[in-house]
Design brief:
335 residues; mainly alpha; 14 helices; 68% helix
Length: 335
């Protein structure tokens, strides 16, 4: 039973990443009608935002410390991070240690700008083109972004450790402990998901966007520049994917191909949830994450070897055979 509950927790943790990426994908498709195969690259860039901030905070100056000498008696050069020089050793060290949570604040404007630049510079030219063209150009963009990250940061994974206070374990259920950062990641994902839904549901901007998703032409006839709002939604979708990448960094060290690793799975999640359905994307993300983790139980793998590698695709096949529009798909979308 403990192993079962742990796998449920693993599934919710992994499903939170699936749900955030799929939520961003659905936002883009629901507003702009674009199938964005570069969305996994945005997840990767978010993870490398935390790597970038970590390196910036660790920039150091060399000073000579007369109290420390080498074996010849010469004073040693000591590297002191600028942050510690400016704020003192204690506060500066704390800032460096908490670089991953601070990367959330760093990643939001960066991802908003990248999303805006992608939409204005490339995506807007493919709104009226077939979905096959959209897939090809965004997939090509994903490869370009992947290679840029590889050239700048190298091919090896880069560790972005969680703060010491959140690197231990917590007791989530009586007798069951779980890594603290994974709990934080899950709770953070719920907050982001709730924030996106609240923004769309209760703000004037969100209401206009939802109206534009339902009937773009009518909203345009009312004198509202819906295109600008849809561009903002592309930036928001990029920020959601980037935040997912930041929080997933301590769990899986950022590497240049992590976007591609999540891309196919996130599209499966979107299709299972229903193209254009935001609640469906979130529900399918958590559902498939839990099923994938349960399929990794030793008793399941011993009975059906390799089932954990294909369970998501099997479930997708069954759901699409019984519900061609997905769990919560709307009529007319992609038809």
């Amino acid at each position: 039973m403990d192993a079962f509950l742990l796998q449920i927790l693993n599934g919710l943790d992994k499903g939170s990443a699936y749900a955030l990426i799929a939520l961003g994908l659905t936002l883009i498709f629901g507003t702009l009608g674009v199938v964005n195969f570069a969305h996994g690259a945005l997840f990767m860039i978010g993870a490398f935002c935390s790597v970038t901030l970590q390196r910036l905070l660790n920039l150091s100056s060399e000073t000579i410390d007369p109290t420390k000498t080498d074996f010849l008696g010469n004073p040693l050069k000591v590297k002191t991070p600028y942050v510690e020089s400016w704020f003192g050793p204690e506060l500066g060290g704390t800032i460096i240690e908490w670089s991953v949570p601070l990367a959330i604040l760093f990643a939001i404007p960066v991802m908003l700008f990248i999303g805006y630049a992608m939409e204005r510079g490339l995506i807007k030219h493919f709104y009226k083109r077939p979905h096959a063209d959209q897939i090809l150009v965004t997939f090509g963009l994903a490869i370009v972004l992947q290679e840029i990250i590889k050239a700048v940061f190298g091919a090896n994974p880069i560790q972005t450790p969680a703060p010491d206070a959140l690197s231990g374990v917590v007791e989530v259920l009586p007798g069951i402990v779980y890594p603290a950062w994974r709990v934080v990641n899950f709770c953070f994902s719920l907050v982001v998901i709730a924030g996106v839904f609240a923004f769309l549901q209760f703000t004037t901007f969100g209401m206009v966007v939802r109206a534009g998703m339902a009937d773009r032409e009518t909203v345009g006839l009312l004198g509202i520049d819906i295109d600008k709002r849809f561009t903002a939604m592309f930036g928001l979708a990029a920020a959601v994917a980037g935040l997912a990448g930041v929080m997933y960094g301590p769990i899986n060290a950022p590497n240049y191909h992590m976007g591609m690793d999540f891309l196919v799975l996130s599209f499966v999640v979107v299709v299972v949830g229903g193209m254009g359905s935001l609640p469906g994307a979130v529900a399918a993300g958590f559902l498939l994450g839990v099923l994938e983790s349960l399929a990794s139980l030793e008793v399941v793998i011993s009975a059906i070897p390799g089932i954990n590698q294909i369970i998501i695709y099997l479930v997708a096949i069954v759901i699409l055979l019984t519900r061609p529009r997905g769990l919560m798909g709307r009529k007319g979308v992609m038809e």
